[in-house]
UniProtKB/TrEMBL annotation:
InterPro entries: Peptidase_S8/S53_dom_sf (IPR036852), S53_propep (IPR015366), Sedolisin_dom (IPR030400), Tripeptidyl-peptidase_I (IPR050819). Residues 204-227 have a biased composition (Basic residues). Residues 193-232 are annotated as: Disordered. This is Aspartyl protease. PANTHER family: PROTEASE S8 TRIPEPTIDYL PEPTIDASE I CLN2, TRIPEPTIDYL-PEPTIDASE 1.
């Protein structure tokens, strides 16, 4: 079996308009390059077109062209590969700018131009990003656009039918401008919080509060009485013991002197985090949390953002539990193309954190669909690559959750009678888990045996890839019990994200590693979202960035707990977004022992994995009972797309990571 390869250079739910930069006010303006979005081709399909309110606040990100961009990958490997003369000579934002950014003279020309139009600007120190904000009427004057709103298939769109124009003298220095066009998809795809899931296998009499956010379901049990105490089996100590982090604690390494970062798109309570650590009997550093709130456009609205708080709560509480003496820096933005770039750029610009985690993602299919419809620009993938490259060069270890629907992502299906939406649920990658300059965290299920009543018995004998297929036999016998409990039924369709990207090529550190670009798979889920019993084993090849890189316990059935004042203690919380902050915390612990930054993990860990004496990984390579609902292990091979290189022995990683 061979899957077809396709490439898109952008992954964002917001459409981007490729513009050439601004210059002096007195200069003749020129068209900002070609129009790769094809927005004008779509104008006839838009309904309800009207001018954007003149006083509406708009925020854009002007991205300048980097210098020596073809040298970025070489420099990432140089500072992160043992034996290289530049190993551990990490860049600062200033040295990154000196090598790759535009100089102060070039960047300085933009502020007076935008000031003329009453637009505020903020220049980042990397010499590549300029945040521009102000009223829509002033944006239109500065860029010669005509910002409008409309609907495309009932989905809100912001766009300009006029190509952006700016003064010619500065035009050649801009790569793109983010935020002029945006698209809010209500078609069942796009944004996912790649975790913060709660499992419940109780009877249908239990009341559940179901919050669904695009392709991942975020569910929290609601009971009449708030739980007042944490449960030991859901404590973060399980991660510490299972993956041998305790020996580093025994040496006195708790993350002291380190700051770990969380990129998120929702708020949280500092008091909830403090109560969580207190309840778990974790001695933490006081006043350790700081929040950097960033303004950004918000296509998904306030209601969606409110639901993101569960994700942020999980990220902060888990990362802080694993590294109890580290500071925590939260970068809180809005989920949009501008918001994501702004959050990471700010983190790297500050250069305070030694590790960073993100627990959100986007379906590659949705982005491809938007691109084909003229609603997205290929440049966004390039922009994110530049942003993440800066972090890797600065020695910041960035972890991104791989997703919670296995290898599957939602796409755009057809319609019957123009009313009934057909599902499209198939094998698609996840962005930015697919980015080559991050370490992507997948999920496993720990051994457990439990009788949930109603004849339901679940049994997992050894740690395996997280996939709901271990529940299929029970589902076949007790279908009505599952169908009457949507929380339980959803667990059938969940698993650790993983696959092969068709956005980014295979990075150098994965090339030649056994199991990369080959795969074993079983199609456990149909396009109609129905479990398949006993699917046959498939094998094939594909090419691109393989993810995840590493894995750990993420199954809500064997998961963790969080604390929120409004709910009390909530158990059976899981998802790969529990794993990403845990790895960030573990990195802070290791850094506190080594006295310096680990840097970008991947160049070293893929080499260590190939050394039988030094490898810190337990490879989960079985082709049976080891699936993320599609990909399985590859017996005898180092890598598989269900769990990456496998689970980590952090003591051994500490001893062998240079």
């Amino acid at each position: 079996m061979r899957k077809k390869k396709w490439f898109v250079g952008a992954v964002s739910f917001a459409a981007l308009l490729l513009v050439s930069p601004a210059a002096q006010a007195a200069s003749k303006k020129k068209a900002a390059g070609k129009d790769p979005y094809g927005i004008n081709k779509l104008l006839k399909q838009l309904s309800g077109k009207q001018k954007l309110s003149p006083n509406k606040q708009v925020q854009l990100e002007v991205v300048l062209k980097p210098r020596d961009q073809n040298q970025m990958a070489d420099q990432i490997y140089a500072v992160n590969t043992p034996g290289n003369q530049d190993f551990k000579h990490f860049y600062s934002p200033a040295s990154f700018r000196a090598k790759f950014g535009q100089n102060a003279e070039v960047v300085g020309q933009y502020r007076p131009y935008f000031k003329k139009y009453h637009l505020k600007t903020h220049n980042y120190s990397n010499g590549l990003m300029i945040k521009v904000s102000g009223k829509a009427k002033n944006v239109n004057k500065a860029f010669n656009t005509n910002l409008q709103t409309a609907k495309y298939r009932d989905n809100p769109v912001q766009f300009s039918s006029k190509k952006p124009k700016m003064p010619a003298e500065l035009a050649d220095n801009v790569l793109t401008v983010l935020g002029i066009t945006s698209f809010n998809s209500k078609m069942g795809g796009g944004l996912t919080q790649t975790g913060a899931q709660a499992a419940s296998a109780k009877s249908s009499k239990n009341k559940t509060n179901k919050k669904t956010n695009k392709k991942t379901k975020v569910q929290t049990k609601v009971t009449k009485k708030k739980p007042t105490k944490p449960e030991k089996q859901f404590a973060p100590q399980k991660f510490v013991n299972r993956y041998h982090l305790q020996p580093l604690y025994d040496k006195g390494y708790y993350g002291q002197g380190q700051t770990l970062g969380v990129v998120t798109f929702g708020g949280f309570s500092k008091r909830d985090a403090q109560q969580y650590w207190k309840g778990e009997h974790i001695a933490t550093k006081p006043n350790r949390i700081s929040v950097k709130k960033l303004s950004a456009p918000s296509p998904f609205g306030a209601a969606a953002e409110k639901s993101y708080g569960l994700e942020t709560t999980l990220d902060v509480q888990q990362s802080g539990a694993i590294a109890p003496q580290a500071n925590i820096r939260v970068y809180q933005s809005k989920f949009s193309d501008v918001g994501m770039v702004d959050a990471f750029t700010t983190a790297f610009d500050e250069n305070r954190v030694s590790s960073l985690s993100l627990s959100y993602g986007l379906s590659e299919y949705i982005m491809r669909y938007l691109k084909n419809q003229g609603l997205i620009n290929p440049v966004y993938g390039q922009v994110m690559n530049i942003v993440m490259a800066q972090g890797a060069m600065q020695g910041i270890s960035t972890f991104v959750a791989s997703g919670d629907t296995g290898a599957y992502n939602i796409g755009i299906g057809g319609k019957i009678l123009n009313a009934i939406q057909l599902p499209n649920y198939s094998i698609y990658g996840t962005f930015p888990a697919d980015n080559p300059w991050v370490t992507t965290t997948g999920g496993t299920t720990l051994p457990f045996h439990k009788n949930y009543g109603h004849g339901l018995k679940f049994s997992v004998d050894k740690e395996r890839a997280w996939g709901g297929d271990y529940m299929f036999k029970a589902f076949a016998k007790h279908r009505n019990v599952f169908l009457s409990n949507l929380t339980l039924y959803s667990q059938l369709l969940n698993g650790g994200g993983g696959g092969i990207s068709h956005v980014y090529g295979t990075p150098q550190y994965q090339q030649g590693v056994s199991g990369v670009n080959t795969f074993n798979a079983r199609e456990f889920i149909s396009n109609a979202l129905q479990p398949r019993m006993n699917p046959v084993l498939l094998s094939g090849t594909d090419y691109g960035r393989n993810f995840p890189d590493v894995s750990a316990n993420a199954d809500p059935m064997t998961g963790y707990q969080i604390y929120m004042k409004k709910t009390g203690w909530v158990s059976n919380i899981g998802g790969t977004s529990a794993v990403a902050p845990q790895f960030s915390g573990a990195t802070a612990v290791i850094n506190s022992g080594k006295g310096g930054r680990m840097g970008f993990w991947n160049p070293q860990i893929y080499k260590l994995a190939q050394d039988k004496d030094k490898t810190p990984f337990t490879t989960l390579d079985s082709a049976t009972d080891n699936s993320n609902l599609y990909y399985t292990g590859q017996p005898g091979k180092i890598y598989n797309q269900a769990t990456g290189l496998g689970t980590v022995d952090f003591e051994k990683l500490y001893n062998n990571f240079q």
